[in-house]
Amino acid sequence: GNKILKMKKLLRLTFLLFSVTFIFAQSNTHDEKFWSNQNKLTIADYQVTTDNLENPVKSQINLSWQLMGFSVLNKNFNQNVTNKFIRSASLINPDLPNVKELLYYQQINFDMAEVYARKMRKDLFINKSKLWKGFDFATKILNDNLHEFYKVQLLMDRDTNGGLDAEKVMKWKTLIDTELNNSNQFDFNNTEKIKIDKISTASEQKVWL
Questions:
Q1: pTM for this model (two decimals)
Q2: Which end of the chain is more exposed for a tag (fewer CB within 10 A), N or C?
Q3: pLDDT of residue 198
């Protein structure tokens, strides 16, 4: 009798933990918009509105990673690095006459973040053997990419006058789209084994700076 009672309590506790975890995950997912080539940013994604004319838009983009011991055995690291837009921390002035242009430029920033998310996934994949010794090397890879991302984002912002110079915005968009088209193997949704030319990787040049 005691064994059955203990088993019932354990099952009830397990179900409770599962339910809480599931609800928490669902809650986070609702607030987070994963980068997608088909699902672009919309005004509705900005949950905070503002009437500020000097800073009419702010996009909270989160590049993050998660690695565990058995991650080294994965076919790739595409789902270990995520690029997400945080709805509750992003604001926009929806009444501005150029709000569509502002939104377009924010999407380009989100696309650039995806370029660096893919760079992170690729760097982790190429250096997979070094991860057996621990994740210090992975942290360096990811921090280096984040540093470059912030640097290039600032460069683009200055070059395009905060997205107001339409001609230069299009030049950056073309460059970013090319980078994305050339790195489809490292898309978050690709779970297949990746084949990569190590020779071309070693001679790869940074096109941003």
A1: 0.80
A2: N
A3: 54
